TrEMBL record:
It comes from the Bacteria. InterPro entries: Ferrochelatase, Ferrochelatase_C, Ferrochelatase_N. It catalyses: Fe-coproporphyrin III + 2 H(+) = coproporphyrin III + Fe(2+). This is Coproporphyrin III ferrochelatase. Pathway: Porphyrin-containing compound metabolism; protoheme biosynthesis.
Length: 301
């Protein structure tokens, strides 16, 4: 399961309307989102293609690693077709006897992964399909290894002594602050992932920051990555920053626009040297984390 994205520029309004629970965006809001997509990809939508490739790569990995079971991978998206319910329905139509649901996001929140699971579970129960779910895999060794490799290779762009000198900022999609009152595990899981990577790499300076907060009129988790960079510049201890978006698993709007364009623009204005780590996409280590988590659900039963 994944968040979803429109297939083309013409589909942006319907997509945005679905995100807004049936309320069409204003002309200004629509133009803002359209301009962001045009800025990163000129009308080509990488998240859709990346998700398709991840689904295919996971299916191949599962069947290669566990030949005793025949695996078929389906996708269900939160805000675009095929919707989560469509994916479950297709499995039943194809005669699938047992299903495992996993979200292409390693960290659990009741407001994100929990919502995906709820929708899939309700549809599966309605159609009589046995299904279990992977809730999180934020400390899977293969995931930590894949992210560690990315941090180490990105640090090389800063030259000698980068591990001690560069400020590394781990980021994820912000959520409304009310999740803190709910004792939601999302912030703690993200910190645990970040700490595991920092220890593996041997980082001298690292912290956590949030990004891509929604404009909903309620407080969202902070500090935002743009504010983090302003603080780094004001403190003056370093002018080198590496962002590792641990909460995202592929190249899409929050990475290609929010970091590569918006955050880079802020970095230039502040006189900072900003780099970011490569996205996971279909990295074999990420596929290992996913396939192992899926099989673990079956083995556990």
């Amino acid at each position: 399961m994944s968040y979803g994205t429109p297939e083309n520029l013409e589909g942006i309004e319907a997509y945005y309307t679905h995100i807004r629970r049936g309320h069409p965006p204003t002309a200004e809001q629509l133009e803002d989102l359209r301009s962001r997509y045009e800025a990163i990809v000129g009308g080509v939508f990488p998240l859709r293609e990346n998700t398709d490739k991840q689904v295919q790569a996971l299916e191949e990995r599962l069947n290669e690693k566990y030949p005793n079971i025949r695996f078929a991978c389906y996708q269900g998206l939160k805000h675009a077709a095929p919707f989560i319910e469509d994916g479950v329905e297709k499995m039943v139509q194809d005669g699938v006897k047992e299903a495992v649901g996993i979200v292409l996001a390693p960290h659990y929140s009741v407001m994100s992964v929990g919502g995906y699971i709820k929708r899939a579970k309700e549809k599966a129960e309605e159609l009589g399909l046995p299904i279990s779910f992977v809730q999180s895999y934020h400390l899977h060794p293969a995931l930590i290894e894949a992210l560690t490799v990315r941090v180490e290779e990105a640090l090389e762009k800063f030259g000698e002594g980068a591990k001690e000198r560069v400020q590394v900022v781990f980021t994820a999609h912000s959520l409304p602050e009310k999740i803190l009152e709910m004792k939601d595990p999302y912030p703690e899981q993200l910190l645990a992932t970040s700490k595991a990577i920092a220890e593996r790499v041997g980082l001298g300076r690292w912290q956590f920051g949030w990004q891509s907060a929604g404009q909903t009129g309620v407080p969202w988790l902070g500090p935002d990555i743009l504010d983090v960079m302003k603080t780094i510049q004001e403190e003056g201890e370093t002018k080198e920053v590496l962002v590792c978006p641990v909460g995202f698993v592929s190249d899409h709007l929050e990475v290609l626009y929010d970091l590569d364009i918006e955050a880079q623009k802020t970095a230039r204005e502040l006189g900072l040297h900003l780099e970011r780590t490569r996205s996971l996409n279909t990295d074999p280590l990420y596929m290992e984390a996913l396939s192992d988590s899926v099989y673990g659900k079956l083995e556990g039963k």
